[in-house]
Prior knowledge:
It comes from Pyrocoelia pectoralis. InterPro entries: Cys-tRNA-ligase, Cys-tRNA/MSH_ligase, Rossmann-like_a/b/a_fold, tRNA-synt_1_cat_dom, tRNAsynth_Ia_anticodon-bd. Its EC number is 6.1.1.16. The protein has a five-stranded parallel beta sheet, sandwiched between helices. The chain has a five-stranded antiparallel beta sheet with strand order 6-7-8-10-9. A three-stranded mixed beta sheet has the order 14-13-15. The protein is of the alpha/beta class. Helix 9 runs antiparallel to helix 12. It has three domains: 24-305, HUPs (Rossmann fold, 3-Layer(aba) Sandwich); 315-424, Four Helix Bundle (Hemerythrin (Met), subunit A) (Up-down Bundle); 434-491, no CATH class. Strand 6 and strand 7 (169-171) form a beta hairpin. The protein has helices at 64-83, 99-108, 112-129, 145-157, 214-226, 240-255, 287-293, 296-305, 316-340, 350-369, 374-394, 405-420, 426-456, 460-475; strands at 24-32, 37-43, 49-53, 88-94, 137-140, 161-163, 169-171, 190-195, 203-205, 208-212, 230-236, 261-267, 270-272, 275-276, 312-313, 478-483, 486-491. Bound molecules: zinc ion. Residues 54, 218, 243, 247 line the site of zinc ion (ZN).
Amino acid sequence: MGGVRKILHLSARYQHNWIKPVGFDTGIKVYNCRTQGKVPFIVRNKDSVTWYTCGPTVYDSSHIGHASCYVKLDIIRRILQNHFSLNLITVMNITDIDDKIITKSSASKISINDLAKIYEKEFWEDMHILNVLKPHVIMRVSENIPLIERFIMKLLKEGHAYKDNDGSILFQIGTYGKLQNVNREQLANFTVWKAAKENEPSWMIQCGAGRPGWHTECSAMASAIFGSEIDIHAGGIDLKFPHHENEEAQCCAYFSKQQWVNYWLHTGHLVRNAVKMSKSLQNTTTIRGMLELCSGNVFRMMCLMSHYRKNMEFSEEYVHAAKTHLETYTNFLINCNIIINNPYKPHIEIDVLNDCVRQSVTKFSDALKDDFDTAQCIKIIDNLISVINRMLHNSSQMSHLQEITPLIGACNFVTNMLHMFGFNLSNRHEISESNETELTNILTKFRQNVRAIGLETKNSNLISLCDSVRDDLYKLGVSVKDHKYISLWSKI
Ligand SMILES: [Zn+2]
């Protein structure tokens, strides 16, 4: 047999049907890859929603394909937590033992352990720059061998897995074949435990020395922490088959269940000129490289503008479009802030604006309920901002203070939306603080030049205007000293 068994025909127990969970209906409709349509998103317990994400294999710098997957999932996590008030419990694995790590380690002469640590550290730094929330629990394969062993031993004992001639353990597909619309011909038994090889790291478990197979590490770790039913399991669309397929099959076998994961979330590819960006095609760039072209906030806007399931085009035009969007939002908030804090206010049609804000809030929430349609959310915000901008632009009369309240309401809505989607707005404050010195420099230099003209032309009006600027600055804690044509300033 050469160790590889024939693909078994699927048993009568095989079925495609998705089983609707019992629990709290969130009101959200989410795409389901099994039914190939949108289904109600029902969580077992809204105060403990379980979410497992397949993490990276840490053998190299993460590329922007990873960035798009994890930023898109981060956006969904924030929507569920912040907009729908679900209490999520999130877990991610780190694959720190793998063929690619072993190959790179022997080529670079860096130990497997050190190599994995270097790239894992870099991965979390990248995620931090992209403002991706950390999972609550991080599970490294090398630290969880005992629970992987427990998982494999049960599969063996119950006949769902068998020992191959070389000592590897294989999963017997077809025992529980609960798959996601793939051809039967595509199914094959897969390795649960790879037998130890010379010069490769291995662990001794009851069924022999070796290391875990990739699909099994996720199944074992996710089920060890979350048990026989998981609300959400997420990853890039590439993982749908065979990785997620095999994870589901193993866990259904392990727990003797028809369904392990209730909802699979798959993010679309990142593409350039309609071709998937990937390391193997050598048309990708690292996250660090990407951040030289656009900020984490701009990248997040790109992800929002494209639906999470769709492929996202990484092009100069798209980066530019996202940058423009973000600037429009920021400028809108700055303009509103100026108007709100200025005694002269343009006339605002309260009823029209109130109506517009109310409708936007409802439509925004409806779009999020429709399979997290963030692209639609962005259009709704765009529309609200353009209505307000038009209103402000066309206004010729000044208004009373109370007419400003719907404008503040609109501002709050846009600001909350930016926070909710995970934009890092703290940079703006940092910039404004460092700009304080620069602003004082500009003002002092301008005053110095005006004063020099005043002195040369003996224009006492200019001199006295300069004196009043100096007195106003003093009240703000800035002391200006004039030395003939030169003016210097310091903080008091
Ligand atoms: Zn996985």
